[in-house]
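Pinned message: reference record for Cytochrome P450
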Amino acid sequence: MILEHILGALQRPIGSATFWPVITLVVAVYVARLIRHAFFTPLARIPRPFMNRLSNLPLMYKLFCGQYHSYSTELHEKYGEVVRIGHDHISLSSTSDTRLVLATHAFRKGRMYEDIVNCGAVLDTFSTTDPEINKLRRRQIGDAFSMRTMCNVESLVVDTGVSSLMNTWDSDISKQGEAARVNYFYSFHCMATTSSASCSLVQDLPL
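Predicted structure (tokens):
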């Protein structure tokens, strides 16, 4: 009802007598939503920096600067295994909690994935927010990730992934001296991408 009132007011010509009441109402609704998100939702009980109660701006800033991995690590070191990293974002560092979330469709994916699909991304196990499509895609690729297949491609993964990563780090260390500054997040991401691409290009793979 409040939203309908605001929209109706905005559609009418606004004079000086109605401008400030409308603006005041909009601000009041925004502040009320802010307070509700900050203090009166289940997320309010989760440890966090104070600003993370109110806004996603700190999180967005760290993402923009490419520092999300270090930012989340610092928060977990200070606040524990479950941290509120934004007013509607949670970060988990416990493998058991992460496995619980990923093993069920009870926890729906966030709006980011809907934006990815709206930009034309293919609906796969990573991009889709529809549980039924996810189940279908998992059945289609399930055999590729079975233990039998993983054993058959183990040497390939070691060569193109682990060994390549170690060689890259050794090269960085030799260039920078006795120690090197390494971005673990992107290093492991690149290793996983390279290994996956190598496996997908193999012909006559024994399955």
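Pinned by admin. Summary line: The longest strand covers residues 82-86.
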